[in-house]
Amino acid sequence: MTERLILGQTLAFGGDPFAEGPEVVTHERRGGVLVREGRIAAVGPAEGLRARHPEARVTDHGAALILPGFVDAHAHYPQTAIIASWGKRLIDWLNTYTFPEEARFADPAYASEIAGRYLDLLLANGTTTVASYCTIHPESVDAFFEAARVRGMRALAGKTCMDRDTAPAFLRDSAQSAYDDSRALLSRWHGVDRLSCIITPRFSPTSTPAQLAALGALWAEHPDCLMQTHLSEQTDEIAWVKSLYPEARDYLDTYEAHGLLGPNGLYGHAIHLDPREIDRLAEVGAALVHCPTSNTFIGSGLFDMGLRARLRVGLATDTGGGSSFSMLRTMAAAYEIAQLRGIALHPSELLWLATGASAEALRLGDRIGRLASGHEADLVVLDLASTPAIAQRAARAGDIWEAVFPTIMMGDDRAVVQTYVAGRPVRG
Ligand code: GUN
Ligand code: ZN
Fold first, then answer.
1. Residues bordering ligand 2, an ion, CB closer than 5 Å
2. With bands split at pLDDT 50, 70 and 90, how would you rate the model's confidence at 166?
3. Fewer Cβ atoms within 10 Å of its own Cβ: the N or the C terminal residue of the chain?
């Protein structure tokens, strides 16, 4: 049986550094990850692993840092080609740039081209798992899953559902077709290889109550499935929701009233929450997904990382509302937003958000997101001196946290030496 031994510095998280501090992380200056049949078989000091596994094929990354592959807990792959579109806030940005682009995904060839381009960008940035929205077209989901399957990636996605006249006519489904198509996609893809379906109403403003209820019913039939949507991203959006759902207590209630609040729910953005909404999300054990580059780019607001005390929180790019495919850039933005709210996130917390915490938000914490025996061998290897500016700062570092923080704050795809998917090198 072929074993691969990957050597470098390692950071193995034994738990959640938010709860247990950075001491919960084991750093090896000369560490290694032993991979067997796509999984991590052992993690530890390099010399011991070498001695115990003399037959293993060795790849030595020297002083580069081996981490679990990054997990992007909320993205829109169909927005790849319109990332960094200028000058609009959420609703205008959707109407001006996003919806016309998403309409193009009726063409399976275009969907397939962008899905491949998108996943290659992710791998170049060290991201090995993503939860993506698709478009209203079931073909856009097929294209995404096919592209992920070819690359051996763990990936989650759903058909984005919109049936209300607030969305353009060329980009609408119906309550019934959203239910039927999402169900058919579930039976085609859910659990195939490393793929999972997510039930995906885009957000309350572009769905009728009938569509939300139909998707709530589908979720009740498949409670193991995740459900993803957007919640309280911008204040204008919240006012819009109020006008469209006058009977609702608040934004979250538009989901709850239709069976779309639950422990496997992923609520993207969640910036402007009322106390009742926070209480309900915490009571049911839902997860929030923080999308910091999007929140600054579209001008949405400052997420409260203090909510982590009560809720699981994942980290995400939200491309193309987010301005980068890189989870390093995303960690930097999370640091800056937290600073603006008076919290200085430790490098261990930032790395945890981009790996284990996002995996836990996606209910995959037992399979990905940590360097741990039995976990799938999705890895990223980072050069901690990838540019002159980063190198000169890292040279002053007194410990691993000081050494990695300049790469978190200033790094991008140039820092990614190698990405491994299920133990297989896919970039380097
Ligand atoms: N709210 C509803 N749809 C979207 C989207 O595509 N991007 C962002 N950032 N927010 C949304
Ligand atoms: Zn989004």
1. 268, 318
2. very high
3. N
Contacts 24+ apart (CB under 8 A), 27-31: 27/400, 31/7, 31/66
- Write the single-letter amino acid at 276: R
CA angle 315, 121, 316 (to 5 degrees): 10
Residue 427 predicted with pLDDT over 80: no
Ligand 1 pocket by C-beta < 6 Å: which residues?
76, 90, 94, 98, 202-203, 230, 233, 294, 298, 318, 321
- Rounded mean pLDDT of 168-178? 98
Q: In CATH terms, are 3-68+369-427 and 70-361 the same topology?
A: no
Task: List the structure tokens of 125.
Answer: 């940035």
Average pLDDT over residues 290-304: 98
Give the closest residue (by CA) to ligand 1 atom 3.
202
Q: How far is the CA of 62 from the centre of ligand 1 (A)?
A: 41
Which superfamily does CATH assign the domain made up of 70-361 to?
A: Metal-dependent hydrolases (3.20.20.140)
Ligand 1 center from residue 418 Cα (angstroms): 31
What is the distance in A from the centroid of ligand 1 to the CA of 229? 9
Instruction: Report the nearest atom of ligand 1 relative to the CA of 322.
Output: 9
Domain ranges, ordered by start, for the chain? 3-68+369-427, 70-361
Q: Is residue 208 over pLDDT 90?
A: yes
pTM for this prediction? 0.98
Neighbour count for residue 104 (Cβ, 10 Å): 15
Write down the CATH number for the domain with range 3-68+369-427.
2.30.40.10
Cα–Cα dist 12/334, whole Å: 22
